[in-house]
Amino acid sequence: MNILGISGSLRAASFNTALLHAAQELAPAGMSIAIHRLHDLPLFDQDVEDQGDPEPVAALKQAIDNADGLFLACPEYNGGITGVLKNAIDWASRSGRDRHTAVLAGKIVCIAGASPGITGTVRAQDQLRLVLRRAGAQTEPLGEVLVFQAHTKIVDGRLADERTRDALARHLQSYATRLAALRG
Ligand SMILES: Cc1cc2nc3c(=O)[nH]c(=O)nc-3n(C[C@H](O)[C@H](O)[C@H](O)COP(=O)(O)O)c2cc1C
Q1: What is the CATH number of the domain that holds 11?
Q2: DSSP string of 82-148?
Q3: What sign results for the dihedral spanned by CA atoms 41, 135, 65, 99?
Q4: What local confidence, expressed as pLDDT, does residue 99 receive?
């Protein structure tokens, strides 16, 4: 299973990007997670889209299209998802000039998130599920990984907390099982 991993934060020391790296380490046998960075993605502009997808947009759509599933590391800003992540979803939700089907449609998406606060991105994750559903993606229904007080668990860019590592590993295993079941 080739999974595309995306962090909703551009920050170099991002807790969510660290979570993504931990997911790479903890993915079950048979699953690999490749990280796609959003740093070059322009802001969505329908006038630009009408001229054809810019290269970073085309690359994002191609990467999503090629992947068996997505792992989204979801930060929380003001009780919702970051503009960075919403922007990527908005681009990817569009069928574009050359495609009949938007690449997010039908994708099975696994979500986790980290925040220094005590709610661990629960509000952003709820919002992310709604947005993804509108884009035709399916979100993994088997539990949540909410890394609260992330600054105590992620040290020097590494997820160090063993209980959280176990929870993330179980989350990824559930995701793998679900993907395999849907494949039949
Ligand atoms: C504009 C802004 C709004 C924020 N709002 C929230 C919030 O609603 N809930 C929360 O838990 N943390 C909030 N935070 C703190 C972020 O969770 C924190 O900056 C976190 O480190 C961002 O994720 P990252 O480490 O992956 O960049 C906010 C941060 C910023 C910059």
Answers
A1: 3.40.50.360
A2: -HHHHHHHHHHT--TTT-SS-TTTT-EEEEEEE-SSSSTTHHHHHHHHHHHHHTT-EE--S---EE-
A3: negative
A4: 54
Expressed in angstroms and rounded, the spacing between residue 94 Cα and the centre of ligand 1 is 28
| Ligand 1 atom index nearest CA of 118 | 11
User: 20: domain range?
Assistant: 2-183
How many domains are contained in the chain?
1
Position 72 pLDDT exceeds 80:
yes
> Could you tell me which of 100, 115, 21 has the C-alpha nearest to residue 65?
100
pLDDT at 183: 82
Atom of ligand 1 nearest to the CA of 75: 23
- Whether the per-residue pLDDT at 79 is higher than 60: the answer is yes
Q: Mean pLDDT over residues 133-150, rounded?
A: 90
Give 3-state DSSP helix, strand, coil % of the chain, rounded to 5.
Answer: 40, 15, 40
115 Cβ below 6 A of ligand 1: yes
pTM for the whole structure: 0.97
